[in-house]
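Q: Hi! First time doing this. I have a protein sequence and I read that you can turn it into a structure. Is that right? Here it is:
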Amino acid sequence: MFNVPAPDAFAVFGVSRTLDLDEQELEMHYLKLSRECHPDHNRAQTTDDCAAVLQRSAEINDAWNILRDPWRRARALLEAESAGVLERNKKLDPMFLMAALELAEEVAFAESDRQAALTDKLQAAIDSDFTALQKDVNNGDFDAAAKRVHQSHYHLKALHDLEAKS
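A: Yes, that's right. Below is the predicted 3D structure, encoded as structure tokens:
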């Protein structure tokens, strides 16, 4: 078995490679593309035609799952603009990792009366990560943007863990 690289999600949707996609327009575009390749609208004559319609449908669904999530969209954009950038920038600053560990401990031991404030703190960190990521991408600094994506993982996980406690 061999691995076929996934098509560029932005190209599948025919949209610009940007983090700033309008979510309503994106959803409307997804629904339009889905209708166009729906098997009921494409009564294929041959097995090859059926396979092509199913392949296109799968590509559209995969692209939708990537583009509708801002963080997955960021990962796709970075890899499309600079192949391997995420792998090259996996190593994070030890001071950041220490702070992330302390944050994870704070989440693990948070009492219920502290959870709302901690949720706000984590959401602010995530928002700050994304704002900085946008700036890095706009400046063409894909290495810094990749590090931001990796750092955001720690904040997103901490928020997820906190929400799971509720």
